[in-house]
């Protein structure tokens, strides 16, 4: 790796150790419930350092990082126990706006994304259009200087915190399902927008249903050309699948697993020293190192904002499976202690039993949450289909 990238990684590591508030660090370490204010506080700290949108072009407030530098940055933050850098604004809609939006949209929307004053949600998935995104039914009808939007989105991450949602809606019929779809920016305070939480088994509030009932959206909030959003949607999905290779998060989880395995006893010695358990941890560590090497090689040769091709799909598959493997081993370790899962212990003010390993409830919650890792961001079955068709010509 180039010397300047090594120095940059150490700069990020040192900054994170000094600047990440300790209360937020504890919540992440123990996988406790985070609030919007926690994410916003950390993102504003990054913005003050000029790193909130480092991969953005200089003209729009970024630092024009190349893909490899961006990956090193995000991996190092995750390794150091920083909160997930929620991507809906800075990684998803921001690049769409500065790539395809009007000058007025760039002036209006980009600055509050970088400053973390506006949070965004992603209005893609619908009840019958998840992995088959082209099957979406939400409609937007043009009436003079505005659109009227009706429909439903689902699995909408952190919509309960969002100020805005970027939404795919059908504005006309086309020869193909991908035709006639438009990309709209919708104020979440608009009359007719309803957010309902979806309960998930990990005991946290991540996802929601979002309903649009005759929601009026100014025509000036259309990004790009009407009916041509499939191009913008695919551009965004490349960004989504690139950062889905969450190697830093996996390394952080693996460190937590090792700490638990060192504290839990099995046949009179630490669990981590038993041959079978140690071998499984080593297998995960080897596969993680291989994934990191592939990421580094792929991104080092990428042009533009992100690499294209089926390699991105492969990264998503491998990363999601590794995340699940780590958390499965966490449950195997905690299971020896007979620890029950109680969502009440995910509250930062809760006091779990003193003899539990640190963050035990959070590890169980993470295991349950990451059952979805092979589904969100495009299910792994769909990813394999894309690889077979586009990469192997099958």
Describe what you observe in this structure.
By secondary structure, the protein is α+β, with helices and mostly antiparallel strands. It has 3 domains: about 5-85, no CATH class; about 120-230, Butyryl-CoA Dehydrogenase, subunit A, domain 2, CATH 2.40.110; about 245-390, Butyryl-CoA Dehydrogenase, subunit A, domain 3 (Up-down Bundle). The chain is built from 12 helices and 10 strands. It has helices at about 5-20, 20-30, 35-50, 65-80, 85-100, 105-115, 230-245, 245-265, 275-300, 310-335, 360-370, 380-390, and strands spanning about 120-125, 140-145, 145-155, 165-170, 180-185, 195, 210-220, 220-225, 265, 270. The strands form 3 sheets. A 4-stranded mixed sheet has the order 1-4-5-8. The longest helix has 26 residues, at about 275-300. It starts with a helix and ends with a helix.
CATH superfamily of the largest domain: Butyryl-CoA Dehydrogenase, subunit A, domain 3
Largest beta sheet, briefly?
4 strands, mixed
Percent strand: 5-15%
Percentage of residues assigned to helices: 40-55%
CATH topology of the largest domain: Butyryl-CoA Dehydrogenase, subunit A, domain 3
Q: Which class of secondary structure composition applies to the elements?
A: alpha+beta
């Amino acid at each position: 790796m180039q010397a300047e990238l090594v120095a940059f990684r150490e700069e990020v590591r040192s900054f994170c150790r000094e600047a990440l508030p300790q209360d937020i660090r504890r919540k992440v370490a123990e996988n406790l419930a985070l609030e919007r204010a926690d994410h916003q506080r950390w993102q504003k700290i990054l913005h003050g350092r000029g790193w909130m949108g480092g991969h953005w072009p200089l003209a729009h407030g970024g630092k024009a990082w190349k893909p490899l530098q961006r990956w090193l940055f995000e991996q190092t933050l995750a390794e150091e126990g920083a909160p997930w850098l929620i991507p809906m604004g800075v990684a998803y809609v921001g690049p769409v706006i500065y790539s395809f939006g009007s000058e007025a949209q760039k002036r209006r929307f980009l600055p509050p994304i970088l400053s973390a004053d506006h949070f965004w949600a992603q209005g893609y998935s619908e009840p019958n259009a998840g992995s088959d995104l082209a099957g979406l039914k939400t409609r937007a009808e043009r009436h003079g200087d505005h659109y009227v939007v009706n429909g439903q989105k689902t699995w909408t991450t952190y919509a309960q915190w969002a100020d805005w949602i970027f939404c795919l809606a059908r504005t006309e019929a086309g020869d193909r399902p991908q035709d006639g779809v438009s990309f709209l920016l919708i104020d979440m305070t608009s009359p007719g927008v309803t957010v309902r939480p979806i309960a998930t088994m990990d005991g946290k509030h991540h996802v929601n249903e979002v309903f649009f009932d005759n929601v009026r959206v100014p025509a000036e909030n259309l990004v790009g050309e009407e009916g041509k959003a499939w191009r913008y949607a695919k551009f965004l999905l490349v960004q989504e699948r690139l950062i889905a290779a969450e190697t830093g998060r996996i390394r952080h989880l693996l460190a937590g697993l090792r700490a638990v395995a060192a504290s839990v006893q099995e046949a009179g010695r630490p669990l981590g020293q038993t041959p079978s358990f140690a071998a499984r941890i080593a297998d995960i560590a080897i596969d993680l190192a291989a994934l990191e090497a592939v990421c580094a090689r792929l991104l080092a040769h990428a042009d533009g904002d992100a690499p294209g091709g089926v390699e991105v799909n492969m990264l998503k598959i491998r990363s999601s499976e590794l995340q699940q493997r780590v958390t499965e081993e966490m449950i195997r370790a905690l299971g020896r202690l007979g620890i029950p899962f109680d969502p009440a212990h995910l509250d930062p003010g809760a006091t779990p039993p003193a003899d539990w390993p640190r963050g035990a409830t959070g590890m169980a919650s993470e295991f349950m949450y990451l059952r979805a890792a092979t589904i969100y961001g495009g299910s792994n079955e769909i990813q394999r289909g894309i690889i077979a068709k586009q990469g192997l010509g099958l």
